[in-house]
Structures are given as C-alpha cells and as structure tokens.
Amino acid sequence: GDGLSNVNIADVVKYHNSHDGIITLTAVQHEEKYGLITLGDNDTKVTTFHEKPKGGQGWINGGFFVCSNEVFKYISNDANCIFEKKPLESISNDGKLFAFKHRDFWQAMDSLKDKNTLEYLWETNKAQWKVWKD
C-alpha cells in the first residue's frame, strides 16, 4: 500500500544527518482497525478495552525513508530482493536503522475505503498532506 503524510522531509533529512545511521525511516502511529483488549491472568477476563485507539505503544513504518549511499551494500541484485525484508532487517541488526517520529497527519491508502476517505478530504479542502501553495 501507499500513504499520504504532511511529514517535513527536510526535517527527516536533518535528523538523518545528525546520526551515524544508514537509513532513517519515518515512524508513525496509526489508528487501530479494531478495538484492542488486554486479557488478565486467566486469559478470559478483559482487563482493558480501547475501541480503535490511535497510537498506543506502537510505531509503524510510515513508508518515507532517507538513505545514505551505504544502503546499496545491503541491496542485492536478486530480482526477488524486497527492500523492507532483508536489507532493512540487516541494517536494523547492524544498529544503523533510525526512526524519525512523525506525530502529525499520516494516512494509509490500502483499500477502497481509504481511497474514498482521502478523496473526500481533498475535495473538501481538508487534505492535511497538501503543504504547498497553489
């Protein structure tokens, strides 16, 4: 899938240049698709319930990256090489993957529902990812 965001890429580049990492990914918090529950000791008693919380404890890959040239050492010529698999996992294992935490607008576009939501925001001038002037 793809995503739209109002992340300031210049800020991500500046952060990337401030550390010795190979890749800086943009980390975002997303709204859960379902309600989350925590189960107690007996595994049947619900101890907490949150209907479709946004954020919570987890961060996800927002899909925007800043990379140093060294990244090419991790990418094979194999046509089946998937960037988010072996290259990113290896860079993470080597301690060279960093996250820029973006706490503002980010929306996935993985489904027709997402597409319709984003089109509605655009058509009603509520597109938070539109950061340029006409």
Q: On the 0-100 scale, what is the average pLDDT?
A: 88
What structural class should be given to the helix and strand makeup? Answer: alpha+beta
Known CATH architecture: Alpha-Beta Complex
- The number of distinct helices, counting runs of at least 4 residues, comes to 3
Dominant shape: globular
The end-to-end distance, rounded to whole angstroms, is 27 Å
Task: State the name of the first-level CATH class.
Answer: Alpha Beta
Please state roughly what percent of the residues sit in beta strands, choosing from under 5%, 5-15%, 15-25%, 25-35%, 35-45% or over 45%: 25-35%
Order the strands across the largest sheet as they lie in space.
5-2-6
**How many structural domains does the protein architecture include?**
1
Radius of gyration, taken over Cα atoms and rounded to an integer in Å: 18 Å
CATH superfamily caption:
Spore Coat Polysaccharide Biosynthesis Protein SpsA, Chain A
